[in-house]
Amino acid sequence: MSKSNEKEIPMPSIRLAIIPILVVIIALTFSVFIFDAEPHIALFFGAATAGIVAFVHGYSWETIQSGFTESVHRAIPSLLILLIIGMIIGVWIASGIVPALMYYGFELLLPQWFLPSILILCSIMSVITGSSWTTVGTIGVAAIGVGQGLGIPAPAIAGTIVSGAFFGDKLSPMSDSTNLTPSVLGVDLYVHIKHMLFSTVPSFLIALAMYTVLGFFLAEGSADPSIVAEYQDVIMENFNLSFLLIIPPIIVIALILFKVPAIPSLIAGVVLGGIMQITVQGQSVSEFFNILYEGFSISTGWEEMDMLLTRGGMSSMYDVVSLALVALAFGGIMNRCKMLDAIVSRLSRFLKSVGNLVTTTIGTSIFLNIFSANQYLAVIIPGQMYEDCYKAKGLKFNNLTRALEAGGTLTAPLIPWNSSGAFVLSVLSVNPLAYAPYAFICWLTFIIVIFFGYKDITMDKTYEFEIE
Fold first, then answer.
1. pTM (2 d.p.)
2. How far apart are CA 448 and CA 355, in angstroms?
3. 31: pLDDT confidence band, cut at 50, 70 and 90?
4. Which phi and psi angles does 461 have, rounded to 5°?
5. Does 233 score more than 80 pLDDT?
6. How far is it, in rounded angstroms, from Cα 357 to Cα 348?
7. Whose CA is closest to 223, among 136, 299, 326, 114?
8. pLDDT per residue over 355-408, tens digit each?
9. Average pLDDT over all residues of the chain
10. CA–CA gap between residue 70 and residue 65 (Å, rounded)
């Protein structure tokens, strides 16, 4: 079939368009919720079904193939960044950088100021590492023990940890999701982060005030210093702490501030971390290369601490990369073969105003977070669905990527069966439904973004137009 003939192919009906989505939902229900399997195969079945539906509707294999290859091509830089992030996490733990941040961070914790202190500490840690999961799995676990020693309810502590970890993750150029989201739409990483500041900073300040008030009401008694000391003793026994360990984070932050591209900044972090690992910790070059691929592992004799510090490595990101590839293929075929257009056209009655468009974008991301159980799919598919809608209204795509992060990434840890929510539950032993009311930043942010959409606040435009 020639390309000219393909241009004449009508948009598929809504019934045809939703078949691949129904296949994904059914496959996810059985694979994730019933058999406790990974979501990759369910998304693969969805992509295959989308290809079959497109072929039956009249599209050639070349067109179907271009759909997923073009989608994956746009995300290649972020996929490479994911692999580098895996390396930097492993090296920064092995070099003592992350353990040192934990050790000295605990010195700052005070009873009445515990919750706001944890929010700030988790935010800083997440910005530096680019990983909300690493923050939750290191500082978060220790903070749960300390906070409960103060008499603060675990759900309030967990909500504060999640708020700080995911807030910092959104501002970090080293974050996998923060890199993936703008790459789906070809938005510059730093433009994306800068635009998110308009919504994330107000939500952070409001949340900080709320945690401060909440902390004074919830804190009882005084902290048991033995809880903190236990963590600090294990760190001292297994790592050499030196002021030199602050150099890599400072240099990486400086590179970020000077707008050095993400990949060179991350590579600098890997190299500097390796230098610290060899010089400060006295490990070999061979160990450095092994950790780059396999990640860091340790045996302290304390199983909980071993689980906290055993992580990272390029191989640790294979699961995320493969999931992103399959999700991009699924979304790419749906987009190229106009199935997403069919769904959007049915929703068009709700998309007449910019505020409704932003609200629908966020609602779609939350819906996919609930039914796909994965935050990457919750930003990739809506991004491709509503790309033309934002373009038609003269809105720059950084408005879309901000909405995707607010609805897709920040709500993921609030859903128990989502990969992020399941991770937090497994690490902190607090159900997401219990801590969700306390994860202020996660739901304040999307409320602010929706408000901005209706009031035409910080909505960057490609040309001037009157907002509806």
1. 0.72
2. 11
3. confident
4. -120, 150
5. yes
6. 9
7. 114
8. 999 999 999 888 877 765 567 778 888 888 888 889 888 899 999 999 999 999
9. 83
10. 8
**pLDDT value for 220:** 55
CA 77 to chain centre: 16
**How far, CA to CA in Å, does 92 sit from each of 74, 101, 118, 306?**
29, 10, 21, 15
Residue pointed to by tokens 């539950």: 425
| Measured distance CA(181)–CA(188) in Å, rounded | 10
The answer to whether residue 1 scores a pLDDT higher than 60 is: no
What does residue 201 show for φ and ψ, rounded to 5 degrees? -65, -50
Both tokens of 443, joined, read 């739901």
